[in-house]
Amino acid sequence: MSAPKNVEISSNMLALFGGAKSIIQDFKKYNPIGVEEVEAAKKVVESGVLSQFIGAWHKDFYGGPKVLEFESECAKYFGVKHAITVNSWTSGLIAAVGALGIEPGDEVIVPPWTMSASAAAILHWNAIPVFADIDPNTFNLDPSSVEKNITPYTKAIMSVDIFGQSANMDVLMKLASKHNLKVISDSAQSPGAKYNGKFAGTLADIGGYSLNYHKHIHTGEGGILVTNDDTYAQRLKLIRNHAESVVEGMGVENLANMIGHNFRLGEIECAIGIEQLKKLNGFIESRQAIAEKLNEGLKGLVGLQTPVVQEGASHVYYVYPLILDAKQLGVSRDRIWEALSAEGVPVSKSYQNIHLLPIFQKKIAYGSKGFPWNLGVSHREVDYGKGICPVAENFNDSSYLGFGMCVYDLREDDVAQIVSAFHKVWASRELLS
């Protein structure tokens, strides 16, 4: 894009108009794998035991030595009775919904500001996702919106601890108790975050974390489920590993949702996970230090809100989220995004509102006839129209900017360049209007 008329190109000219970019190098990609992980994986390969699961009632039903060790170490770290590994966090969410005994047609409340797997895991069991809006400061579920969406058919709440901090679990758990609901914490992006002294993900009936390559703990793919409930733990393990073949041998009488899968995590991934878990505190501290520098550097920029951390909580910054006030700026979010991108800042201007995806707009999931919405299992017509979650929709349409903290291994000079680019854009924002 060329410079506006009557404006000469100078050293301070925005790159969008032909000036020099603020950031000319690519930031170093986040790679937490070190010699410890390499050696741990090597030992597993040399042992020849890459997996030791058997999909039948057998001593190896629970997996091999590294699976059991990783689960034990996770249970200790997160302070829970049970940690169960799975081959992806999507698998973990599916197992969690099933373990709670959700029936076809039951409603589960979930935020729209999340990855699609959160709602797809509900549909997996032929239940109905109901979308509640998000808090305008934390991006997590807004308890007041949750309460407005509770009906006689609501059976659970799936809270998503988005971007790196816990939702307001005190209020959500009180709501759940009041209405006899179960709660799942999708804490995929928030391992190690604290809420009133406890880890995000551990305050719900079932919670857990993602282990895929751009998360704090990286084993390639994988997930960790956590719970303090013995019955849920057993059901999670059954769903993970061919439940239908195992329940008879185990003497399990509750057969609801005992349709099993191969959701098993391998020995190599668990060996890597053991070493990664040892480093988690360091990973978190480095992200928090970078976020503090960004907060300080961006402080005072008009119309820009840096991340808000709720009282009693900590943030582990999977994403560094920003909110723009376009009216105060006099410039649209999209123009700011264009200018920052041109300066070399790898910032995104949207997340996604999953209630607006075709699967929900058209209500077509299993087959082509609208199941599970219109084949007799759904109790009412659920609205997915635009406007049901105005806070989340406004963020996506006009006011959100985000920086993927777990995508990059940022150094202090990287942060300085990012901050410099923001200040450059803000100083010339009148040219963007």
Task: Quickly list its features.
433 residues, alpha/beta, 14 helices, 36% helix, 12% strand
Largest sheet: 7 strands, mixed
Poorly predicted runs are none
Which series of helices and strands comes N to C? HHEHEHEHEHEEEEEHHHEEHHEHHEH
Please list the strands of the largest sheet in the order they lie side by side: 1-9-8-5-4-2-3
In whole angstroms, the N-to-C terminal distance is 14 Å
* Basic shape: globular
User: What portion of the residues fall into strands of 2 or more residues?
Assistant: 5-15%
According to DSSP, the number of beta strands is 13
Helices, by number, come to 14
Q: What is the CATH first-level class name of the domain at 35-276?
A: Alpha Beta
- Can you tell me the CATH topology of the domain at 35-276? Aspartate Aminotransferase, domain 2
Report mean pLDDT, rounded to a whole number.
95
What is the correct CATH architecture of the domain at 35-276?
3-Layer(aba) Sandwich
Helix content: 25-40%
SS-based class:
alpha/beta
CATH superfamily of the domain at 35-276, please? Type I PLP-dependent aspartate aminotransferase-like (Major domain)
